[in-house]
What we know:
Helices cover 66% and strands 5% of the residues. It has helices at residues 20-32, 71-78, 89-93, 95-108, 138-141, 168-181, 185-222, 225-250, 256-271, 280-299, 303-323, 328-347, 351-369, 381-395, 399-418, 424-443, 447-467, 472-491, 495-515, 520-539, 543-563, 568-588, 592-605, 615-634, 638-653, 660-673, and strands at residues 9-14, 56-58, 80-87, 113-117, 142-144, 150-154, 159-161.
Amino acid sequence: MTHSGDMLFRAFISYSHADASRAGWLHRAVESYRVPSRLVGKVTEIGIVPRRLVPIFKDREELPAAGDLSREIEQALLSSEFLIVIASPSAAASRWVNEEIRLFKQHRGEDRILVVIVAGEPGASATSDKVEAECFPEALRFKVGPDGKISDVPAEPIAADLRPEGDGERLAKLKVIAGLTGLKLDDLVQREAQRRSRRLTVVAAAASVLAVVMSTLTVVAIRSRNEAERQRAEADGLVEYMLTDLRSKLEPVGRLDVLDSVGDRALTYYSRQNPGSLDADALGRRARALLLVGEVANLQGNLEAALATYKQAAATTSEQLRRDPDNGQRIFDHAQSVYWIGYVAWQRGDIPTAREYFGQYLHYAERLAKLEQLKPEWEGELSNAHSALGVLELDDGRLPQALGYFQKAQLASERLREKSADKREQTYLIAQALAWKADVRRKMLDPSGALVDRMQEVKLYNEVLAADPKNSEIRQSLYLAWLRIAELHLEAGEPAKALKFADASFEALQALQRGDPSNSLWAEMAVKSANVRTEAQMMLADWRGAKGTNQWALQQAQQLLSTDASVMEWRSDCLMPARWREIAIAQALGDRAAARDKITAFERDFRVGTNPQSDEERLARVMVHLLSGANWSSSGNRARASADFTRARDLISGTTITDSRMIAAATYLKDKSELSALPNGSSMKSDYSLPQLFRT
Length: 696
């Protein structure tokens, strides 16, 4: 089901606050549901069946005691394809639930209302002694006219039943899914049964390893005291295996669910023991289990949970290091803790906090590098630390410093590769350093140098994949490199070459995402790839193809932000770029009114005047001002066009230009308005073809 251009939400959940917990359950159940792959793309009476049913709107705030529905709630309601009513006596007594139903029926009709009964009895109000048990609000029980008035003609809503004597959670959820998609309930039930069977098979295979491990752990608690120490030593060895060898086998295939199980099981084992009885090695393993659980939460987009877990691990590793400051394992363990705390800060755009923790990480990496006995798993820390600080300098616009850090990272890895028997890890780190150097060169307006680095990066990934073809970490890095090469070709004015790499990246990342939909990093990369693919299609005047790719990017970006709105990059580098391209497509297709509506929505959602937090956000804001100016110009409103062009100029001239796209924007601006945004006497030029995107 493709939701139409003016529909922001798949569904709006209307509920009484007394039923908030059941509404929350349904909200999570529907948004997390993955339509079986064989049913995706099927055409029903509602439309094309999507893979995910997102986003779903659920108001969490108390409404005022008097007055009409708030404007925001009303807009969300009328921008939803379906209304889902949580029916109960509390809902029947709620004026707000009744008003939401009445308003939806008036404007959207009755055939897209789904009902989920959680308590009470439908139709009980027809009997005088059961009025209080009624669960259907008046507007649900009766038809509503075009004038919004509730008639006395009975309606016949069809409902799923969550009551104990009703459908149960699984069947009720599937009934709602069937209503939202137009699929037959029997098909969904059958596919769900098949999916559960396959899942049991997969989990059984993975769990067979863990079951052996955990059976030994359980023995620790029930063996006699005379055997306790020997059994505990054996169990600790198995936990070490889970956190090292088993983890190394699971990570390359990207199985977050099994990794999470490994971490949770290890933590469960340690939770059954007195912390005071744990020796230093056991506490270290517990900290590594916490970091593993945090990494999985991070990849699933739950930064709050990840950060809390990282801080808990850091408290342990810090104390361990204080007790034994020259122990390499203690240094390594604490280095991991501070790195991950810094990483979350970087994800949230908190550069000062990230710099503090990444600086600590470099300090511990340098201490490790000076040890005489350096374990293989510690060797990459110095390269990683230099790269982490290089990323911060890059984000902060300090390009020479960033290039210096990435060069140090590359040299550190090259030295280690020379003496390593297994060269895969160091080859990967060299490729990563080249990737970051390419990003810096791009910002230094050296696209040819950036392209050389990128092609060398791809060559190194292919070397590793030749020896380890199933390694998902290397594959995702290769697919990202293809994406960056596509961007460089776009900036060089070569859209056909750009589309070739963008297509390859987009299709490959979608395949990764299908393998693990909970991996938010893969989802983020897929959105960015879709945005670049959209732009290449626009450059080649394939506006219909661009619109389809853009709609996919918009939906996926909104879904990412629905999991954690605090991740700045998902907003600035995923959603905002998709939104400005959406405006350009509408304008190119000749629908200036729709383009104007989308410009207004962009300015509302992303507040004009807000300081951009990234280059992509700044570019998005500039592009929207230019598109708005072109829109006003085409309708003869020169004053408004001039105001928008002036805002674009101010945004461009308010920063150091490190992007050929921004140079192209400044050139376009001067051609259209004679406003100059480039530095005086500048000879900056760009091959990026902006006029091809701004067809009006």
